[in-house]
Write a structure and sequence with these properties.
By secondary structure, this protein is of the alpha+beta class. The protein is built from 26 helices and 21 strands. Among the domains are: about 250-575 and about 585, C8orf32 fold (Roll), CATH 3.10.620; about 635-730, no CATH class. This is Transglutaminase-like domain-containing protein.
């Protein structure tokens, strides 16, 4: 069989290898949709197939460049531009955007990279990978490294992100072992110069390979498996890398969310507006509370029961009628993208003026959540006005307040998990040992955090391990965190003292953007995702639920009656000034849920921490450079070897060049037998590659060695012979 026929006979196997490489690369793309904000993942998959198909055709490089480049322009235009792809405006926009982003990269302004430019980079990576996969899988048939990297990539994502790799691991296992089997058989055939017809003998080895791999995969997937024999390594790894368990493996985005079962971890700021509040006095806007602490977060202990409310008479009470109040009103206007089907209200809300009569308000009286519905379906209100009675609390009344006589009520709001470490109880007793009434004990715990080195921060925030308690970790190990850490810790310590307390979430008042509008009647505050917040409510008999603010740098807008109390002045003025966080961090306080209050938006540009982005980009650049140097190491060495061959007119340069050819041939599987002469070896090589170049170079080499005649040896013709043979060997 001729060499051409042999190439044709192995075409189907190399095609299978290339398709396997494509499928493995797709396993890198599939998780992107779940672990990032990428929306149009299908477009990237289609472009991947397009690039791999063009590469497989082996067209001229310039045609491949034009086709793949056209694909990128077509995709970018379809996603980001309203202009025609043939429009000069579109190319002007594209050029300006690319130039701007290149300047941003040179200036290390990573935050300023646009979505268009990020998409462009992603598409270019897909373009490059279509060639690299062809080189690895088809030309050199070395699939092991990329296969291992794929396994590592998938398992890391499965461990540290929300991506579930159950089926991905199964698919990867099948693809990898089929690829390894085919690649090794083809390399062995090439090394031993075995000529195999795919139609006659192919099934002899390909069918058993497929059968064994599929059988092993199915049995491995279906067979019963032991439970994990080692403890979860994630908390340990986080602790080892970051210290004290800092970091949660995934930086989350700020915003109000409903799932508080697992608290902890870092977050990034999001100043997307949620609503504007027209009001005269600052308020905390309440949404709901939760009553059961699990050791890791908060849940509601009882199923929610919603009762329809009269918008002119909201029946939810947080304080008793004896409390002095002052009537105010506030109007909320929501951003078009806001998605909260719940009433956001100040303390003491009495009436709600809704934009439509068919809107229903439904209250869960246990946690204060008020749903907004139309025909029993959630509705997102655009605006509403509320009338509320702002309470003014009496310190003396709270000091004189005794324990509640309702044992069931007290039990609900003082229960704690049995796993809570004893030292949390001891700390609460120590903090309040000098006080005899409930109010002073509450204020002592509230002010404890500002006196004992606790730090407000939103990055590198700890996540408790499986055997750790969220509050215990914060109080004794890390002493660093944000509102969830401070508020949860205060509630738990109060409960250890049998003081009823609950965890509340909502929004702070935001930032004032206009003053004295409507003849000085209102100020306008803008509330963003970054203003989502959590705080504490404590129950006092004959007073009700009173809000408290333990978080560093925050002051709850709780009104207290003017009273003279030396003891309270002591509590109000801590010995050490609180450590106030940076302004950006104060604006970013929230309860940090993965779910945003906004529906997914392709134009949303999430800001990540500088350290994460900078380190990630640097790592990618280093890996890419190292990979390219490794993949091209023979081409690079060939280039310098040829320069040396032309520059140095001596025998040593030619000997080095000839020995380099022998090394490359040995790497490709063409080993010289001990009893084989150089001429015999050269004939074997020329016969394989269909050339006479190895024989000519060997003749020159023998003349140099045995006749010691370097004349007319080191010329351009010899250099070209050497270069052409190198190209054949390297493919």
């Amino acid at each position: 069989m001729s060499r051409l026929n042999q190439t044709n006979s192995s075409f189907i196997y190399t095609s299978i290898l290339y398709v396997a490489g494509l499928l493995l690369f797709l396993e890198w793309i599939y998780p992107v949709e779940q672990v990032t904000d990428t929306v149009y993942i299908g477009i990237f998959i289609i472009y991947t197939f397009f690039c791999f198909f063009i590469t497989a055709l082996r067209v001229k490089w310039w045609l491949s460049f034009l086709l793949k480049g056209f694909g990128i322009i077509f995709i970018l235009n379809g996603i980001y531009s309203e202009h025609s792809m043939l429009s000069k405006l579109w190319y002007s926009e594209l050029t300006s955007d690319v130039v701007f982003n290149i300047k941003a990269i040179l200036a290390r302004q990573w935050f300023d990279l646009s979505n268009l430019f990020r998409t462009l980079l992603f598409l270019v990576i897909i373009w490059l990978m279509s060639y690299l996969i062809y080189y690895w899988f088809v030309q050199v048939k070395r699939v092991l490294v990329f296969s291992i990297l794929t396994f590592v990539y998938i398992t890391l994502l499965d461990t540290f992100t929300v991506y579930s790799a159950d089926w991905a691991i199964f698919r990867t296992f099948v693809i990898v072992f089929l690829s390894l089997g085919i690649a090794n058989v083809l390399k062995e055939m090439q090394r031993e110069n075995i000529q195999v017809s795919r139609l006659k003998t192919g099934p002899i080895w390909i069918l058993p390979l497929i059968s064994i791999v599929l059988f092993s995969s199915v049995v491995g997937y279906a067979a019963p498996k032991l439970e994990p024999q080692w403890p979860d390594p994630v908390p340990y790894l986080e602790s080892a890398v970051n210290g004290n368990g800092f970091g949660n493996g995934k930086v989350q985005k700020v915003g109000y969310g409903e799932n508080d079962e697992r608290l902890g971890g870092s977050f990034v700021q999001d100043y997307t507006p949620v609503f504007k509040a027209y009001m005269k006095e600052k308020n905390y806007f309440r949404i709901e509370s939760k009553d059961f602490y699990t050791g890791k977060g908060w849940i509601n202990s009882e199923k929610q029961q919603f009762v329809e409310q009269d918008a002119n008479n909201i029946e939810f009470e947080t304080f008793h009628p004896v409390i002095e109040t002052e009537r105010h009103d506030v109007t909320l206007e929501f951003d078009d993208k806001a998605r909260i089907p719940k009433l956001i209200y100040p303390y003491g809300v009495r009436q709600v003026q809704l934009p439509s009569d068919n809107i229903e308000l439904k209250l869960d009286n246990l946690n204060g959540e008020i749903k907004t519905e139309v025909d029993n379906k959630d509705v997102y209100l655009t605006n509403y006005r509320m009338i509320y009675d702002s309470p003014t609390y009496s310190r003396e009344m709270m000091r004189e307040s005794g324990p509640s006589s309702n044992e069931e009520f007290v039990t609900m709001y003082t229960r704690l998990p049995a796993t809570l470490p004893e030292r949390v109880y001891d700390l609460a007793e120590e903090i309040t040992s000098g006080y005899t009434n409930q109010f002073d004990k509450v204020r002592a715990i509230e002010s404890y955090f500002s006196r004992n080195g606790f730090v407000y921060q939103i990055s590198d925030v700890a996540v408790p391990g499986e055997e750790e308690d969220y509050v215990d970790q914060f109080l004794f190990d890390t002493k660093a965190g944000y509102c969830d850490n401070f508020s949860t810790s205060m509630v738990v310590m109060l409960r250890t003292l049998d003081i009823p307390a609950r965890w509340v979430k909502g929004f702070t008042s935001g930032d004032i953007i206009e003053s004295n509008i409507n003849d000085g009647e209102y100020d306008v505050y803008e509330v963003t995702n970054a203003n989502a917040h959590s705080w504490v409510e404590v129950y006092f008999e004959d007073v009700g639920w009173v809000p408290f603010e333990p978080t560093q740098g925050f002051n709850a807008p709780t009104n207290y009656a003017v009273e003279t109390s030396t003891e309270d002045d002591f509590l109000d003025a801590p010995d050490v000034a609180p450590e106030v966080p940076e302004q950006d961090e104060i604006r970013g306080e929230q309860d940090k849920q993965v779910e945003d209050v906004f529906s997914p938006s392709t134009g949303d540009e999430t800001k990540f921490s500088f350290t994460l982005i900078h380190g990630g980009i640097l790592l990618v650049i280093i890996v890419l450079i190292a990979s390219i140097l490794f993949w091209k190491r023979y081409e690079i060495r060939t280039y310098f070897m040829q320069k040396k061959l032309l520059k140095h007119n001596d025998a040593q340069a030619y000997q080095d060049a000839y020995h380099y050819i022998l090394k490359l041939l040995s790497k490709e599987g063409f080993h010289k037998e001990p009893d084989q002469t150089l001429r015999e070896y050269a004939l074997r090589i020329d016969d394989w590659y269909g050339t006479t170049e190895m024989g000519e170079l060997t003749s020159h080499y023998e003349k140099l060695i045995y006749q010691r005649d370097p004349s007319n040896l080191l010329n351009e013709e010899v250099s070209n012979l050497w270069k052409n043979l190198i190209k054949r060997i390297l493919g």
